[in-house]
Design brief:
216 residues, hpI Integrase, Chain A, 4 strands
Length: 216
């Protein structure tokens, strides 16, 4: 029991210092299409979570910006999904635009209530959050962290994952596709290319493999 009368639990029983204090735990990106597909397969019967995952790895939004998306951000007045979305980032207050690709379009469309003519707008409050909690409020960033770790664990993917995993995965795969590092740096609002490479999780192994493929 502590001095203020509270009962000690967990690590408090053996120490007054949290075991994670001063330790930096790096959240990983997903580094293979196989791992991405494993999570997609696990989430196939959960439309909200599948849309959250797919849009996250295809938009590169920060977790808080992803979670604050509302139906009005992705739908036209007549109920069609927009081609691109523009939002103001919470951290930088800069305007950020991203396109809705075919995979993102599909999972968002599957999430929407529909009738024979398409999206049923009368059943949608455009001010509602797309990725709402059970109480219809916005999911917290802590809950997103828990969800991503849970998905990875259930999909059999080892490592430490969290809310930054989706954005880091976006960066990692864009670089592997040959995206210009300076454009990606600007998109992610980083200070230098080295910061972007580190954030995306590009390692010496990736550089070695690229050099082997070069083979001039």
């Amino acid at each position: 029991m502590t001095d203020n009368g509270k009962i000690k639990k967990g690590w408090h029983l053996v120490s007054n210092v949290a075991p994670h204090k001063d330790k930096v735990i790096t959240v990983k990106s997903l580094r293979s299409k196989k791992d991405v597909e494993k999570i997609r397969e696990y989430l196939k019967n959960s439309p909200r979570d599948l849309a959250l995952f797919v849009l996250g790895i295809n938009s590169g939004l920060r977790g808080n910006d992803l979670l604050k998306l509302k139906y009005k951000d992705i739908l036209t007045p007549d109920g069609h999904i927009v081609n691109s979305v523009s939002i103001r980032e919470g951290k930088t207050q800069k305007l950020r635009q991203f396109v809705i690709g075919k995979n993102s379009y599909k999972v968002l469309y599957d999430l929407l209530p529909k009738n024979g003519d398409g999206v049923k707008l009368e059943n949608i409050n455009l001010e509602d959050f797309i990725f709402a909690s059970r109480k219809r409020g916005k999911l917290s960033i802590q809950r997103l962290h828990q969800l991503i770790n849970h998905w990875a664990k259930k999909a059999g993917i080892k490592g430490h994952f969290g809310s930054h995993t989706l954005r880091k995965t976006f960066a990692y795969f864009l670089l592997k596709k040959g995206a210009d590092i300076h454009l990606l740096m600007k998109t992610l609002n980083h200070s230098s290319p080295s910061v972007t490479l580190r954030y995306a999780g590009v390692e010496q192994e990736d550089i070695d493999n690229a050099m082997l493929r070069l083979n001039l």
